[in-house]
Structure formats: structure tokens, C-alpha cells
């Protein structure tokens, strides 16, 4: 049965930086372990393995192989490292995979063989990597989504398919290319060797195709919605689950820049956050997380509230944009609360908040002593508020400071390069009240609806 989730998102939110996940990245320490999973054509293809972080709630054992986008001709495994760190923070073994890019004699057909080989390798290494061979998902972005979906539909070369280990147990697809019959670029990369329909996942869906969750912008011109819709329709006809999550008014990779969907991506932060949460929730429903929560409640799902997480996140971003300023509460050495008004940058996709301050300020001393902080945004109409509790980090990196600077602040710093310091707040919990949306506290305890970013 399909669960068609058409997210009605507010797109007039303040501009935000390209999504990264610094909060997750900081939790997953060290670089990935690098393995060679295949030797082919005189090349060694690498698998970059991120192990689950210590103390993550889901039981270790499930895994996900990640395949980057880039039109089959550019890109690298590093493009999926942020997503891999996120999966690892959820308790999964996350493997970012290198595959051959189309050039000279190499075509997407060869890349598909690499994808199949990667799944075989991962399952053969299950004991060494701590993987349950029956819980290995595939995650693909754009062209990478095509390749991992093709492994599950078109099938793998005989050298891999006979092993029974070359296909994913679940598909997580982000703006995937699923109907290659309408893709002129893909046709050209095949160099006339075969009809594109032979490698079109939407045309080869079968009953054995695994459950699939797709994140798709309705205005995508590179990998159009029609392909995802066809793929899902045929999955349903085959008796398989398809979770199609559509995001109105955004294009490829959920970009808000509809004029140029090939570069200069400006992903909508609310849509991106919701897409991530839906992928995790989908994995939970399939049993990839064995932590006593069969529904697989995603980070950002209210633990004691029926209000959907995307509703709370949308409301929070609207209040934050309207408020502009926030109160920053810290604790001094005696435990006394200190509060001051701040001019923060808009939250990132994972609700991490950045702000600037003077190196000599009391708040810097407080954070060095105790990094626990709370941010408070009041709706200008007094119709609600957002309170974000989390951990503050002091950042003195010149590149980060240059990217997060406002010229209007120059009067407050004698030497900005030396005096200016960034505060990065990684959220643990966010409470939201918005009476205009009916988001209210518990009638008995007055506890507001909240988002637990720790997944607990």
C-alpha cells in the first residue's frame, strides 16, 4: 500500500545555507575506514565505511550503501559523507561507495556493475563490518538513485546476480532518475550500445523490488516527477510498498532555484528536513532499527504529541523568521542564568543555529564553563514562541567566520579577525507554541509540543 505524502510546505522562509549536518558530523568522530571492494579495469574502487556512533539508540546491525549523484559522469563518494554520518548517528553502518564515472569507454552500465559488486562485498564482509545481511538498504541521489534502483529492478550482471546478495533490502531515493527513456543525457552516455529502456528502473519493476521511499520535488526538470510516479504506480501494482514524498514548488534536490537546477542548488530547508525524517521513519517501519520503537520514530518526531514533525518545524521556522532576534540564556559559574538579545543567522536544515559575538564577552566565558544553552524566539504577534535547548560550541575558524559575518556589525569590533567569534548551537530539544496553528501545550501540564533531536 502506498503512503502518498504531499508536503504542503511554506516556501517563503528566509534564505538558508546549503544543507550540511554539522551536528551529526561532530558526533561521528574520525574519518571513515577505507576498503577496496572491487578491482576492475586496472582500478581499485573504494568503499568508505562509517561505523555507528557510540551510544546511538538503534541496535547496530543494519547498513546502508550510499551512491552519489552527478549525472553518471562527475562526483565522488565524499558527496554523500554528510548523509553517511547522519545514518551512522542513527546506529547504522553507512558505506559511501565509489563507482566508475562515464568517460571514454565507460558507461552507466559499468557503474551498475560496480553498484552490484558493492552490495555483494558488503554482505560478504558482514561479520567484519557488523552488518546484518538481511538489513542492507540502498541510498541514491539523482544518478546514484538510478543506479541503486536499477540494481533492484533491471538486475545485476550474472557474475553478481547468482550470489543472491547483490540487491538492497530497501531503497531510499532522493530526486532519482527512474525513467531513463526520457533522459537524453543518459541516452548519449550509453553510446548507442543499448536502448535506454533496458536500463530504466520504472520499466523493470517486479514483485521482488524492495520497499521504496522517494523524496521528490514537484518542479524537478532534471529527474521529473513523472518517473517517480510511474515507478511508484508499478510498485503498487506489483504488491510492493512505495512511499512517495512530494514537495511542492521545489526542483531537483529540492532546490528553490527553479531557473537553474543543474548547479547553484538552494535546497529548501524545511523540505529537506522533512525528507530526511521520512526516510528514517520508513527504515524504522521496515525494522531497520531494533530499539523497541517499531514505528521507527525519526529525529524530529514529537515523543508525546500527535502533531507531525514537519508541522512543528514549519511553525518554528515561521516564528523564527518573523522574530529575527532571540534571547540566548547561558549559565554562569554559580549556576545563575544570564540572558541577552542576539541577532542569529537563520537555522540550518537540522535546526543548528549560528550567531556571532565578541571574544571577550561574558557569554563566551559562560559557554566555556558550561556549554548548555537555550535560545528563545518570541512571535511578534505574541501568538507563540520557539525555545531551542542544546549545546553551544565556540568556533574560531576563519572560513566559517567569513561566511557568517554582517558588515553592519563592523562598528562593534575593533579588529574583526581577532575579536569576532562564532557560536554554534546544536539542538537537543525544541519546544513550539503557535496558537494560530492550534499548536498548544498539554491542557493539564501545560507542557508544549516538542521535537527531540536526539531521537530519544
**Helix/strand class:** alpha/beta
Multimeric state: single chain
Strand arrangement in the largest pleated sheet: 1-9-8-7-6-4-5-3-2
Radius of gyration: 23 Å
Order of helices and strands: EHEEEHEHHEHHEHEHEHHEEEHEEHHEE
Q: Considering DSSP H and I runs of 4 or more, what fraction of the residues is helical?
A: 25-40%
Distance between the termini: 29 Å
The number of distinct helices, counting runs of at least 4 residues, comes to 13
Protein described:
This protein has 456 residues and is α/β, with parallel strands linked by helices. It contains 13 helices and 16 strands. The protein has helices at 22-27, 81-89, 108-124, 126-129, 143-152, 158-161, 184-189, 225-237, 269-285, 309-323, 362-369, 398-403, 416-419, and strands spanning 5-7, 33-40, 43-50, 63-67, 93-97, 136-141, 170-174, 212-217, 242-247, 326-331, 337-342, 353-358, 372-378, 384-395, 420-434, 450-452. The strands form two sheets. Strands 1-9-8-7-6-4-5-3-2 form a nine-stranded mixed beta sheet, sandwiched between helices. Strands 10, 11, 12, 13, 14, 15 and 16 form a seven-stranded antiparallel beta sheet that branches. α3 packs across α5 and α9 (269-285) runs antiparallel to α10. The longest helix has 17 residues, at 108-124. The protein is elongated and about 70 Å long. The relative contact order is 0.11. Residues 1-29, 55-60 and 291-305 have low confidence and may be disordered.
Throw out a few tags for this protein.
single chain, 456 residues, alpha/beta, 9-stranded mixed β-sheet, 7-stranded antiparallel β-sheet, 16 strands, disordered N terminus
Amino acid at each position: 500500500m502506498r503512503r502518498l505524502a504531499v508536503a504542503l510546505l511554506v516556501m517563503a522562509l528566509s534564505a538558508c545555507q546549503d544543507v550540511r549536518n554539522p551536528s551529526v558530523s561532530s558526533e561521528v568522530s574520525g574519518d571513515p575506514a577505507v576498503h577496496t571492494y572491487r578491482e576492475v579495469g586496472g582500478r581499485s574502487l573504494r568503499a568508505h565505511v562509517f561505523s555507528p556512533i557510540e551510544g546511538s539508540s538503534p541496535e547496530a546491525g543494519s547498513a546502508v550503501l550510499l551512491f552519489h549523484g552527478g549525472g553518471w559522469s562527475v562526483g565522488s563518494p565524499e558527496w554523500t559523507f554528510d548523509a553517511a554520518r547522519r545514518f551512522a548517528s542513527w546506529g547504522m553502518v553507512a558505506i559511501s561507495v565509489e563507482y566508475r564515472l562515464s568517460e571514454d569507454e565507460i558507461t552507466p552500465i559499468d557503474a551498475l556493475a560496480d553498484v552490484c559488486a558493492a552490495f555483494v562485498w558488503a554482505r560478504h564482509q558482514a561479520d567484519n563490518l557488523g552488518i546484518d545481511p538481511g538489513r542492507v538498504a540502498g541510498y541514491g541521489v539523482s544518478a546514484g538513485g538510478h543506479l541503486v534502483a536499477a540494481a533492484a529492478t533491471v538486475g545485476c550482471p550474472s557474475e553478481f546476480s547468482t550470489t543472491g546478495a547483490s540487491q538492497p533490502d530497501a531503497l531510499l531515493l532522493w530526486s532519482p532518475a527512474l525513467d531513463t527513456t526520457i533522459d537524453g543525457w543518459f541516452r548519449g552516455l550509453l553510446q548507442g550500445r543499448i536502448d535506454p529502456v533496458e536500463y530504466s528502473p520504472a520499466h523493470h519493476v517486479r514483485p521482488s523490488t524492495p520497499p521504496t521511499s522517494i523524496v521528490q520535488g514537484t518542479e524537478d526538470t532534471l529527474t521529473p516527477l513523472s518517473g517517480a510516479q510511474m515507478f511508484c504506480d508499478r510498485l503498487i501494482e506489483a504488491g510492493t510498498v512505495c512511499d512517495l514524498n512530494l514537495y511542492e514548488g521545489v526542483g531537483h534536490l529540492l532546490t528553490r532555484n527553479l531557473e537553474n537546477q543543474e548547479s547553484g542548488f538552494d535546497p529548501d530547508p524545511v523540505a529537506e528536513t522533512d525528507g530526511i525524517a521520512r526516510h528514517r521513519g520508513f527504515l524504522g517501519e521496515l525494522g531497520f532499527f531494533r530499539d523497541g520503537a517499531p514505528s521507527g520514530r525519526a529525529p524530529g518526531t514529537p515523543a508525546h504529541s500527535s502533531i507531525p514533525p514537519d508541522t512543528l518545524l514549519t511553525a518554528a521556522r515561521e516564528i523564527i523568521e518573523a522574530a529575527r532576534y532571540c534571547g540566548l540564556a547561558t549559565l554562569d559559574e554559580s549556576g545563575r542564568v544570564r540572558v541577552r538579545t542576539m541577532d542569529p543567522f537563520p537555522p540550518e536544515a537540522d535546526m543548528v543555529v549560528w550567531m556571532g559575538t565578541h571574544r571577550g564577552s561574558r557569554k563566551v566565558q559562560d559557554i566555556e564553563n558550561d556549554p548548555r544553552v537555550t535560545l528563545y524566539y518570541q512571535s511578534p504577534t505574541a501568538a507563540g514562541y520557539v525555545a531551542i535547548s542544546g549545546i553551544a560550541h565556540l568556533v574560531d575558524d576563519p572560513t566559517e567566520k567569513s561566511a557568517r559575518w554582517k558588515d553592519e556589525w563592523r562598528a562593534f569590533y575593533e579588529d574583526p579577525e581577532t575579536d569576532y567569534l562564532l557560536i554554534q548551537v546544536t539542538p537537543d530539544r525544541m519546544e513550539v507554541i503557535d496558537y494560530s496553528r492550534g499548536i498548544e501545550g498539554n491542557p493539564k501540564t501545560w507542557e508544549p509540543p516538542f521535537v527531540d533531536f536526539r531521537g530519544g
